[in-house]
Design brief:
The protein is α/β, with parallel strands linked by helices and 326 residues long. The chain has 13 helices and 11 strands. Helices cover 41% and strands 13% of the residues.
């Protein structure tokens, strides 16, 4: 069995690091990438604590701190410019940066476009130094259409009206950043929510050589790719070096729920099966009757790239060591 790295998981509380490590073992992953959340003040601390406890198990994609922007603070870490924050985080032992700032609710709350002067020093520094970024850009386009928004998404507050930036506005901001900084090493979470438009996804990958997509569901990702499995399989074969395995597992999931998350992505990649989300899956995967997933039955060499070699080429074969802080 080929090595597996889950590039996209969440840890909310440091005391649950052992639970996440147990999940990692249970799903057959060798390592995990913890992606942090900018609105959770404990997110970075929890991830660094997990890395300290399990240094060979966890990568850390740290979040930026925008409290200086919102509070006007001039003291402490929160006052550091974004490029300096990245330098400090990487020096401490982070493996990269996670951006959630262009998820529509975060983009609305912050009120700061990704292509603004505020973010420019961050992107310039990341391009110059090759810092890997995991970037959540927009959300599924149906979240802006009330009759198409899944019930579970609406309950989370992820149904968007005219007070939110639109899907196209957010993607335009993102592409403005990429055009200014084509060397950015970016993995767009959840296939950049372009799984419903593979020609557009291909165009982005063709324009920017360092852009990648992860497969963390958003269950719509697998449903969209299942509508035309032949087209999707051709895409995965053509862009096999640009796709990375992920699950969006959270530390609060039990072992069964975590196994379902990892299992549906692996089954989609490895087999030609037609199947539903299994009973017992977590609520963010929706109900089993919501749709059919049709597998791509990818060859072993492509699976190996998706499961670990693409991630290791971008981030490293092993997590960066933590720097001890006196």
């Amino acid at each position: 069995m080929t090595k597996l790295i889950d590039s996209h998981v969440h840890l909310r509380r440091a005391e649950r690091a052992a639970s996440l490590a147990a999940i990692c073992r249970h799903i057959g992953a060798e390592r995990m990438g913890i992606v942090c959340l900018h609105y959770d003040s404990n997110s970075n601390a929890a991830a660094f604590a997990a890395k300290a406890a399990f240094p060979d198990r966890f990568y850390v994609f740290a979040a930026l701190d925008h409290s200086a922007r919102s509070s006007g603070s001039t003291e402490g870490f929160s006052a550091l410019p974004l490029d300096e924050q990245v330098r400090v985080l990487i020096d401490r032992g982070a493996d990269g940066i996670k951006l959630l700032e262009t998820k529509p609710d975060s983009r609305k709350a912050l009120g700061i476009p990704a292509d603004s002067d505020y973010f420019e020093p961050f992107f310039a520094y990341a391009e110059q130094t090759g810092v890997p970024i995991v970037w959540h850009a927009a959300d599924p386009p149906e979240f802006w259409v009330p009759r198409l928004t899944p019930k579970w998404a609406a309950q989370k507050g992820w149904g968007y009206d005219e007070t939110f930036p639109s899907y196209e506005e957010i993607l335009a901001e993102v592409e403005n950043v990429l055009s200014r900084h084509p060397g950015l090493m970016v993995t767009f979470a959840h296939f950049m929510f372009l799984s419903n438009d593979l020609p557009r996804a291909a165009g982005l990958l063709d324009r920017y050589a360092n852009v990648h997509f992860d497969l963390a569901p958003g269950i719509e990702l697998l449903y969209n790719l299942s509508r035309n499995p032949n087209e999707s399989r051709d895409f995965f074969l053509t862009y096999s070096r640009r796709i990375i395995f992920g699950t969006d597992i959270e530390d609060c999931l039990n072992l069964e729920q975590a196994a379902h998350r990892a299992g549906i992505v692996k089954r989609f990649l490895e087999t030609g099966d037609e199947f539903h989300v299994p009973e017992g899956a977590d609520e963010l995967l929706g109900q089993p009757e919501d749709g059919i997933i049709r597998g791509l039955h990818l060859p072993a060499d492509v699976l190996e790239m998706i499961y670990h070699t693409n991630f290791e080429r971008i981030v490293g074969e092993h997590p960066r060591p933590l720097k001890k802080i006196d």
